[in-house]
Amino acid sequence: MASIQASVKNKVRETTGRMVEINVDERLILPFGNLKVIVQNYNSVLTLSHLYRSSDALLVHENDAVHKICAKLMNIKQISFSDINQVLAHQLGSVFQPTYSAEGSFHYRRNPLGDLMENLVPHPEFKMLGVRNIPQMSENSLAYSTFTWAGLLKHLRQMLISNAKMEEGIDWQIRPPLPGLPSLSKMSLNKELHFNTSIANLLILRGKDVHSADLEGFKDPALYTSWLEPVNAFNVWRTQRAFSKYEKSAALVSNSQFLVKPLDMIVGKAWNMFASKAYVHQYTKFGIEEEDFLDSFALLEQVVASYCTL
Questions:
Q1: Per-residue confidence (pLDDT) for residue 195, from 0 to 100
Q2: What contacts 41, CB < 8 A, 6 or more positions away?
Q3: pTM
Q4: CA 132 to CA 251: how far, in whole Å?
Q5: Nearest to 221 by CA among 204, 203, 235, 233
Q6: Closest CA to 201 of 213, 215, 212, 188
Q7: Taking 80 as the threshold, does the pLDDT of residue 199 lie above it?
Q8: Given a cut of 60, is residue 26 above it in pLDDT?
Q9: How far is residue 251 from each of residues 116, 136, 138, 166, measured CA to CA in Å?
Q10: For residue 41, which of 136, 149, 212, 270 is within the disulfide window of CB 3.0 to 4.6 Å?
Q11: φ and ψ at 253, to 5 degrees?
């Protein structure tokens, strides 16, 4: 389905011209890491490369991360696809439910997708967007929980810079690099990325006393790449209307290095198979040539390299 989707999008774009589009793809761009499908990395590389060419932005979800949210935060013992989809729907709803168009305004945004693009994709080479939510918990846990904006935003900021997908298990030792020192993010991919450098962040706040939230922690220049001023790299949307069952909640949509490590792993595994010509015949008999593989590898390797040098 994802391959068909990518093909249709290319044809539509060729016919109608460039169009603003956010691509939401959970299961086929980044599959489960332990899924026993031998060609899943081939499929991911081919599909993601085509979607990257034809889309203005990709809002990426990782199945492994969503599964952990179901298990650890929602306390679900037997996790079904319905449970996973419910978490994904919550993440998307926390972003795309209506918010006010400006500070002090009572008019809702007319073009949230366009605003999202304007806020988060300042350069066409950097299109990967990720979503983090706080809080997320089961109804039983919620009954005994209280939230403050200071606490929620402190955790969400640390989730961002440590590249944590949920608040459980955050690494509090990771800090932004000091001025004048090279960032760990600029080291070789052979070394694990620690600090997650951002290009741009969009914070979406919903609920009680939303205008009292202190946002200074997200305006820190150390969070961002040097070629974009923090005043242009950080934006906030708000509404006093609560989302779902939470009196206060926050979502962070980030264009950052969050996908470097998993994407590099997928490309590496696919390349190792391709170098030995494993299963390539299953694709060539349907018209996908070796040059198509090479083009896809080249594009995604460039994406990894570009994000790695932020």
A1: 93
A2: 266, 267, 269, 270, 273
A3: 0.86
A4: 6
A5: 233
A6: 215
A7: yes
A8: no
A9: 13, 11, 17, 11
A10: 270
A11: -100, 125
Based on its alpha-carbon atoms, the radius of gyration of the chain, rounded to whole angstroms, reads: 20
| Contacting residues for 147 by C-beta, under 8 A, at least 6 apart | 135, 246, 247, 248
In degrees, to the nearest 5, what angle opens at C-alpha 6 toward C-alphas 203 and 295?
100
Structure tokens belonging to residue 177? 């690099």
Nearest by Cα to 204 from 246, 252, 142, 266: 252
Chain centroid offset of residue 135 CA: 17
Contact 247, 195 (CB under 8 A): no
- Output the six-digit token pair for 202: 């969009």
